[in-house]
Specification:
CATH architecture of the largest domain: 3-Layer(aba) Sandwich
Number of strands: 6
Order of helices and strands: EHEHEHEHEHEHHHHH
Largest sheet: 6 strands, parallel
Radius of gyration: 17 Å
Low-confidence stretches: none
CATH superfamily of the largest domain: Response regulator
Shape: globular
Mean pLDDT: 92
CATH class of the largest domain: Alpha Beta
Length: 209
């Protein structure tokens, strides 16, 4: 029996996934509505696989992924995302996720993905794998590729309209540190203000309109 922790801020999504997995002899042993809660409960629950949504309030999925792997470098994490871009899967896999599954995938793909990650195998849904391969062949580079992992995390929250103080609280960093990241992000992306950062994120499908 594979023991899974589901991390998604939508209760109905967690319910649907739980029912789907239960029909395939995969036990959901814990649910979390935020990255913060997942990091807090992980050591106690000790799941075989963490199914982690990327787009959540608070610290968000990528930061939660980083902290879970800091707790346990051998943690097996399957990332779920509604994003259509290539930056998020690249960042998630580079950060240590074993699998990446687009939420648009067929329901049975979740069972296949969880099973693969539980075995310690990499899993990438076909459409995301194709998008990554095409982007590499075409040499298409998003301007945000030049951002560090921390800068990317700050950038996404800025693009969603969050204040420096709120981001500092979410990421447990000082406001001056976030301000420094903001300066470097604007320099790298040649953006004059937060609204222009939002436009960059929308242009590359990094946030929802």
């Amino acid at each position: 029996m594979i023991r899974v922790m589901l991390v998604d801020d939508h209760a109905l999504v967690r319910m649907g996934f739980s029912m789907l997995l239960a029909n395939s002899q995969i036990e959901v042993v814990a649910e979390a509505g935020s990255g913060e809660q997942a990091c807090q409960d992980y050591a106690r629950v000790q799941p075989n696989v963490v199914v982690l949504d990327l787009s959540m309030p608070g610290m968000g999925g990528l930061e939660a992924l980083r902290r879970l792997l800091a707790q346990n470098p051998k943690a097996r994490v399957l990332v779920l995302s509604a994003h259509e871009d290539t930056a998020h899967p690249r960042r998630a896999l580079r950060a240590g996720a074993l699998g990446y599954l687009a939420k648009r995938s067929a329901p049975e793909a979740l069972i296949t993905a969880v099973s693969a990650v539980a075995r310690g195998e990499r899993y990438l849904d076909a459409q995301t794998a194709q998008a990554l391969a095409v982007a590499q062949i075409d040499g298409e580079a998003s301007p945000v590729d030049m951002l560090s992992e921390r800068e990317f995390a700050v950038f996404i929250q800025l693009a969603r309209g969050l204040s420096v103080a709120r981001i500092a609280d979410n990421l447990k960093l000082s406001t001056s540190t976030i301000g420094t990241h903001l300066y470097h992000i604007k320099q790298k992306l040649k953006a004059g203000n937060q609204s222009e950062l939002t436009l960059v994120a929308l242009r590359w499908g990094l946030i929802d309109a």
